[in-house]
Design goal:
Blueprint: E1 10-15, H1 19-30, E2 35-41, H2 45-54, E3 59-61, H3 64-68, E4 76-79, H4 86-95, E5 99-103, H5 110-123, E6 127-130, H6 137-147, E7 154-162, H7 171-175, H8 188-200, E8 203-211, E9 222-229, E10 234-240, E11 250-254, E12 258-261, H9 267-272, E13 291-295, E14 298-302, H10 310-321, H11 336-356
Parallel strand pairs: 1-2, 1-4, 2-3, 4-5, 5-6, 7-10
Antiparallel strand pairs: 7-11, 8-9, 9-10, 11-12, 12-13, 13-14
Helix pairs in contact: 4-5, 5-11, 8-11
Amino acid sequence: MTGTEDERTVRTAVVGYGLSGSVFHAPLIAADRRYSLDIVATSDAGRQAAAVERYPGVKTVPDGDAVLALAGNLDLVVLGTPPATHFPLAKAALEAGLDVVVDKPFAVRSSEGQELIALAERLGRVLTVFQNRRWDGDFLTVRELVAGEALGSVTRFESSFERWSPDISKAWKANATAADGGGVLFDLGTHLIDQALLLFGPATVAHAELHARRPHEKVDDDVFLVLNHESGVTSHLRMNMLCAQQGPRFRILGSTGAFTKHGVDPQEPYIVAGGSPLDEEFGLEAPEWAGALGRDGHLDALPTERGAYPEFYRILADKILDGGTASARPLPVDPTGPVEVLKIIEKARELASRKAG
């Protein structure tokens, strides 16, 4: 870390400059004065040029190995690479003495995630997982609503990510198998499962449907899961990449009322359109997308909380600058949670496979 005690910065490298690196990690890091975005790793010449244009002075290197060769000049490595690379790159970065952010999915096997957690604890390094949709405005709204009494006792939680994407846009996704972390369950599914577990606690997989609808899909692009939570809530989770008419993002049924919310958090498209997390309007959703709270005939519009992706890196800076794993400050995402997500995915694949057989 550089600077005086009050002005220290976390020297950071972002590995991967596709959607994850260019839209999420780099803009959020650059927007927080306690970080310096020193290195971007990508083998694509066009992406290298784009990184330098947007972040003058940033150094570009071709891959994670080149980043690790410069570990002595860094504090933090952020992995926005394909899922199959997460475990080996995170392991190497921890062993090089660096703190690590791993994009979701944490790994492609829960055992790999557990191994990384044990390694980070042994080495005294900070390890966390970028489950950014914990800070979606609609999820923040839902979390506050569930914690209150407006719905009474929640009985059923329905959560969906549905998109119309008939073509597979990324080469690695088109070629990825389940062992590589391919498919929508490893992608959008990690967010839906993570949110359900956060809201309602541990769960078992009661039902799993995994389908590949698109011609070139090797794993799954249409998934439906039913989770039975120990708290008594039943979660219905849908993720679909070939959905021409999208349903509600959330529908929550309770003993005294319900909540329905359409639309998708605006933070990602805002940055894609060239906006900054520092903009005054960042994270604000248009009022017409407010959710409906109550009962049929007695519905009130519930405005959406402001989305807060910058919170992830704010909390992480507090942790790192206050002493890393020795600090009492919390991690933005405790990696044990994403390990439980991977266990749910493994059970879902096992259950679906048994039914198919």
